[in-house]
Specification:
Elements (H helix, E strand, L loop, with lengths): L1 H41 L7 E13 L4 E12 L3 E12 L5 E11 L4 E11 L5 E12 L3 E9 L5 E8 L2 E2 L4 E12 L11 E13 L5 E12 L6 E13 L1
Antiparallel strand pairs: 1-2, 1-13, 2-3, 3-4, 4-5, 5-6, 6-7, 7-8, 8-10, 9-10, 10-11, 11-12, 12-13
């Protein structure tokens, strides 16, 4: 009788443990699957390479009797910490040849919001081509203002500097107001390029764009330019009609 009682007690204990295990096992499996999914989501691949091309401005400028086509474009390719960055900017006055600059820079992240850039710049049009070594920073200042600040060293000790600031003010889901200001300074004058020594030119604009898609947005705007160099137009107001696109 005692043996039967002991066997019955053992059977009850084993069956109870088995039932408890069957009840606990599904939640444990679900928890393990959730933990694995969260780990996979947080374990991101920092070595993945991405790229982007942005045509920030392709526009027609009318200054009341004088007209020109302007462009600003950039592209980058790389990972989270290192990127190859290319920029081009210039204008094409009515009845004249295009003039502008192109830059090829290596971009290295320095802090959460800022990166250091170094490379080369080449000026074309408006006389013989001119090369520069470039070093600068790019990042996001308070109030979501995008900043580009670059210093240049040319041949025979020529120096130059460029500062650009812009931001996007979203008025509606599709309507965006973009204030922008760019300053350029040179240590030497260059009459062929209408560049004065010191502060050579200021370009401040206000553009209102309508995003048909985020990647495609026509815009209207107004800009004020200040160019005091020899043969330069001085102070001018411009009406703008252009297009912004990226992919």
């Amino acid at each position: 009788m005692r043996r039967c009682a002991r066997a019955s007690a053992r059977w009850q204990w084993c069956s109870g443990a088995l039932c408890a295990g069957l009840l606990i096992l599904p939640p444990l499996c679900a928890l393990a699957a959730t933990t694995g999914t969260a780990a996979a989501m947080t374990d991101m691949d920092d070595a993945s390479l991405l790229g982007r091309v942005l045509v920030d401005q392709v526009e027609w400028r009318d200054a009341g009797g004088t007209a020109a086509a302007d462009w600003q474009a950039e592209a980058w390719y790389g990972g989270d910490y290192n990127k190859l960055w290319a920029r081009s900017e210039g204008d094409w006055p009515d009845g004249q040849g295009a003039r502008g600059r192109a830059e090829l820079l290596w971009d290295r992240i320095a802090t959460r919001w800022w990166s250091v850039q170094g490379g080369a710049r080449y000026d074309f049009g408006g006389g013989p081509g001119k090369g520069w070594a470039a070093l600068g920073v790019q990042g996001l200042a308070p109030y979501w203002i995008d900043i580009e600040a670059t210093a240049y060293v040319g041949s025979a000790g020529a120096l130059a500097a460029r500062l650009k600031a812009e931001t996007d003010l979203r008025l509606t889901p599709r309507l965006v107001l973009q204030p922008e200001c760019e300053l350029n300074a040179y240590s030497r004058a260059d009459a062929a390029r209408q560049q004065a020594a010191g502060l050579s030119d200021v370009d401040a604009g206000l553009r209102l764009r309508y995003e048909i898609r985020r990647e495609f947005a026509p815009y209207l705007g107004v800009a004020w330019t200040h160019r005091p160099g020899d043969g330069a137009p001085g102070d001018q107001w411009h009406w703008l009609l252009g297009l912004r696109a990226w992919y």
